[in-house]
Write a structure and sequence with these properties.
126 residues; 5-stranded mixed beta barrel; 8 strands; 41% strand; binds zinc ion
């Protein structure tokens, strides 16, 4: 199999979801809008607008994980939960030496192949 990943110039994205009926935003996507009870079609996603979730955010809480699974070359990883400007919250990896609760960060998305299996899209806060 040929690996095309090095030719992929499109940055990976993680989507938030906006209810078309009332404008409420969610991440991850719910089956039913908590505000107006609109139902999302699980196959077509009809009734919901996808948008890129990234950019400025505030660190709500974080932790340092020491006992990493076998295969990691790092001593520890930092994980945090952030809140975006639209109020949505997401968890991801922090790439900072000294994170502080309440600090302003920028969220981006990376393809992580640190664990076995298919690469997964993750949030990285820096
Ligand atoms: Zn709604």
């Amino acid at each position: 199999m040929i690996d095309f990943s090095m030719y992929d110039v499109k940055a990976p994205k993680i989507s938030g979801f906006r209810c078309e009926k009332c404008g409420s935003e969610y991440y991850p996507a719910p089956m039913i809008c908590g505000k107006c009870n609109s139902r999302r079609d699980p196959v077509t996603g009809k009734g919901w607008v996808k948008f890129d979730l990234e950019g400025p955010c505030t660190l709500l809480t974080w932790t340092r994980v020491w006992n990493l699974p076998e295969g990691y070359t790092k001593k520890f990883l930092l994980f945090g939960i952030v809140q975006f400007e639209n109020g949505l919250r997401a968890s991801g990896r922090i790439e900072l030496d000294e994170p502080k609760t309440g600090m302003k960060l920028t969220a981006s998305v990376e393809e992580s192949n640190e664990r076995p299996g298919k690469p997964v899209k993750i949030f990285v806060f820096s």
